[in-house]
Specification:
Four copies of one chain form a homotetramer. With 288 residues, chain A is an alpha/beta fold. Chain A has two domains: 6-86, ACT domain (Alpha-Beta Plaits); 92-285, Rossmann fold (3-Layer(aba) Sandwich), CATH 3.40.50.170. Chain A contains eight helices and 13 strands. In chain A, the strands form three sheets. A seven-stranded mixed beta sheet of chain A has the order 7-6-5-8-9-10-11, sandwiched between helices. The first copy, chain A, has a four-stranded antiparallel beta sheet with strand order 2-3-1-4, with helices on one face. In chain A, strands 12-13 form a two-stranded antiparallel sheet.
């Protein structure tokens, strides 16, 4: 019921009287049934966000192109950014990894069992280690080694694969390389990284070692869109794990794995369900 | 901004095309600005719920009576149950206690500091112990002792106070008496109890002792509307606390206090913000 | 450092003056270094528990048999139940599953990556579905179908595999069959089940459906030793997950998977690290 | 049982064979019953920590001075730092506040009900606002206003009160002044501050506003010993609270209050139960 014949409409614009009605009035006019809806109105910034899941009319044919044309007129009045997609659409997601496989393994399990409604046209790694895992899931594995000298070239290859895969999303599932500003720009808004700390604490390399040195009693993971500043992109979701003095860095690494996996998977879920709006360096996540 | 001149409209009815538009279309027509909105459509039961916070028109006068009349026509079409209230309304809440004071103390603090936007016209107890705490907050304290013989009479007094206080809500903040079916009926939908277990586990008396006997590794608290069956009413919210083998019953009692306080306060907050819909022995809580 | 040459000594007995010294004094006498130690003294029941990780003497040879003989004398004085094992010992664990694979997949990942220091000599299932997953990990998969008529015979086969595998532990990783009292007895203290509810709430079949019907706001998972009463065995650890009205039973099922996996893995970890003492229908878990 | 006639012995020293036996052997020799014990051996730093709760001998008289003398000899052999105290000892705790009263209110409740086994000889504030709350609990309230010019003098007065109160602990319960390095030094190891962020994230002023600007999805609180660097002292415990895009700074402030209270109270509990060892800029917390 929830997915069959269901579409998702998201929109955002400056706050003005009538934005909600522009969406809901149109849906009613088109005889579309609203199955789920959330709004957020940022009273500080004067910005409005809406996400609606709706079902096509039960009778008659639904002409999506005509629906779009009709909505575009309404949206234009409010200068809305908007997007329409099928609930059942399975976006292509390219996964990037290095040697750590826990996030990859978790994502592949969710992919294989349908918990994550995605296609994975490619796994890209700067190491050969995780080839066998990819093979078992029948997913092409691209080993693109990287050195300081070959970084530009490697990123070019990487970008080509992303494009040829029609990837709507790139997931850095513990990919241990810093992307160039150019590639960050190209991937803006459609690349999610998992960082193994509660950002903004412990940016950069070896956050568990930093956490150990500092003696914190909670560690965590942060899933965020990448941008040009390392570990500074808009945060989508965060997870947390209690620790204590007895955890050496290696044990923090081990302790943190589960929360990294769950946090990254949740961020991807939010993204593909069109719940996440990037906005002023932050995110609005509707209906999470 | 959030509270000033803001109203809350809630409605529920059988699922039908047009229910959303009946609300949002009307608000737009009345030039009311939608500040916050959530819906839930129960696809199994075919039932629809909506909660909207909206602001009066910035220009012109807002005639609430006329607004109500106008909406009533639309609501009738869908046989909606609906309610309109001011965001800034502070409902009268009668608190009932016995001897344990942690929940009362917590509620009084939130009341005193404005975190809970309520008035407390009366505190009722079957014991005299908490009089001084009430006095300090300048709240009338009614000591209504109870024995098997006087239960009916005591409940009659209690009910009179609730009525004379114009109480919109009664909170059983660790009131250690079982209410009669008659009183339960009278209070249906407007009396919240805190039970110190993760219901449906450990109903009835001494849940922490039951938890100790069972050796559970998590204890918790459940805030629920009361109904005719002990500890069976619709659950509003629950909280949880990790424990271990070293906690004897008295220590579970101590450990559980914080989570009881927080859970009860949260339930009251949801209720007075009109987020909770009772429905089929359960609750829908919008925008929590 | 933590595992190399490290042994684990656990003991329990009635509370008496001298029990701690019986252990620590002996370790010192044997020039063994105490690396980690916890005790619990149940003041209600008058029972004492201790777990020590210690390192062999740095100089000289360590004769484990002689160590055992020496300790046995001391332990006898207090009628201690005790056990000595290598920290690096990898016990044989037989995993039983039906069709749901999330716990199995998770355990196999932790096994494959060394996070769970176990060997898995056999996976037993009443369905053929998870053969391929077992194959990929090079683990023998025994498909033992079961019908009311063949239950006794199936359990006999199952028991044979457990014995031939020298299994120290049997894990019911969502095995959807009730074991016979006889098999429960045979497996007493060495079979861990994961039940997908916060026991004692929602025992028996379809706990997520029960949770949906009840409208709880928290679901969870309970890892416990099996005993003769269904879902009544001593609880090792529990996990919890917040849910709301929008989660239908299927979604509770999906939501609960992660917490089931993590909770079961944690219980196994505690068990193999010799942290868990079964006692009066409950558990003491030291140093968790 | 737990508190009556129970003492707490804590000790730490460089890791060496025999440290455990030095403690447990002596307790046995003195016919003292070990009721609770934890150790931690920091394998990286080569440092050992132990905390024992024990009961005096049931027969005969217990001479504490003699006990101390006897233990001092053993402790000296290992160059142990050690401390002996009564379980039932209620230390004097001076509380410092500014205008925010939630932590103070919470601590006073726990004090009044015996949940926190402390005496509060003085409440010190740079503002007069919380006098009435102190009065109700019959606790002397010292209003010590502060300006840039009078800071040194104010701190001198403050220090005098701390000394005259025989305060074993000073709690900065949202005291919104930075202490001078000199006062920090004087209070080293016996002053606990609550900072309303998950340190090391969001040090300094207005952490909730910083959290809002950054768009984090979790906020929290950190209880730590103060030292000379602002918000950098050894962390005792931390708490966390989920938030989302809809929380403006004022709402984060409101959301965070409960977790601040609970986190601070827990840190004080650990401290007065002698569970916390400061060590290399971090803490070891035994048996928490």
């Amino acid at each position: 019921m929830k997915q069959h014949d269901t579409l998702i409409l998201t929109a955002s614009c400056e706050s003005r009287l009538g934005t909600v009605d522009a969406v809901t009035g149109y849906l009613y006019e088109q005889q579309c049934y609203v199955a789920d809806m959330q709004t957020f109105d940022d009273a500080r910034a004067g910005y409005f966000f809406i996400r609606v899941e709706f079902r096509r009319p039960e009778q008659g044919e639904f002409n999506e192109a005509a629906f779009r044309d009709g909505f575009a007129v309404r949206a234009q009045k409010y200068a809305m950014d908007w997007e329409l997609s099928e609930r059942s659409h399975r976006p292509n997601v390219v996964i990037m990894v290095s040697k750590f496989d826990h996030c990859l393994n978790d994502l592949l399990y969710r992919y294989r069992t349908g918990q994550l409604a995605i296609e994975i046209p490619a796994i890209i790694s700067n190491h050969p280690d995780l080839q066998r895992l990819a093979d078992w899931h029948h997913i092409p594995y691209y080993h693109l080694p990287i050195t300081p000298d070959t970084k530009a070239e490697q990123e070019a290859q990487l970008w080509r694969i992303v494009q040829e895969s029609n990837a709507e999303l790139v997931v850095l599932a513990r990919y241990m390389q810093v992307l160039s500003p150019d590639l960050c720009n190209k991937l803006a808004g459609r690349a999610i990284n998992i960082h193994h700390s509660l950002l903004p604490g412990f940016k950069g390399a070896q956050p568990y070692h930093q956490a150990y040195a500092k003696g914190v009693k909670l560690v965590g993971a942060t899933a965020h869109y990448i941008n040009n500043e390392l570990d500074e992109g808009p945060i989508i979701t965060q997870g947390v794990q209690a620790v204590d003095h007895s955890h050496y860095p290696e044990e923090l690494v081990a302790k943190g794995r589960d929360i990294e996996c769950v946090t990254l998977a949740r961020a991807i879920q939010y993204h593909i369900e069109k719940r996440v709006f990037m906005y002023r360096g932050k995110t609005v996540v509707l209906g999470s």
